[in-house]
Amino acid sequence: MIAYLECFVHENDTESRPDDDVSSLSEALDLQGSIHDCEGPTDEASRDFGGMNSLVPLAFIRLSAADDVARVVKAAVRSSNLTVAARGNGHSINGQAMADRGLVLDMRSLDDHFRVVRANNGSVYADVSGGALWEDVLTRCVSEYRMAPRSWTDYLSLTVGGTLSNAGVSGQAFRYGPQTSNVTELQVVTGKGEIFNCSETENSELFFGALGGLGQFGIITRARVLLQPAPDMVRWIRLVYTEFEDFTRDAELLVTRQDEDDSFDYVEGFAFVNSDNPADGRPSVPLDRDQFFDPTHLPRTAGSMLYCLELARHYRNTDDPSIVDMGVNRLLGGLGFVERLKFQVDLSYLDFLLRVKRAEEHAKANGIWDAPHPWLNLFVSKSDIADFDRTVIKKILKDGIGGPMLVYPLLRSKWDTRTSVALPKSEIFYIVALLRFTPPYLEGPSFENLVAQNKEIIQYCTKKGFDFKLYLPHYRSQDDWKRHFGNDGWSRFVERKTCFDPMAILAPGQKIFPRVS
Ligand code: FAD
Question: 302 CA to middle of ligand 1, Å?
Answer without folding.
Answer: 37
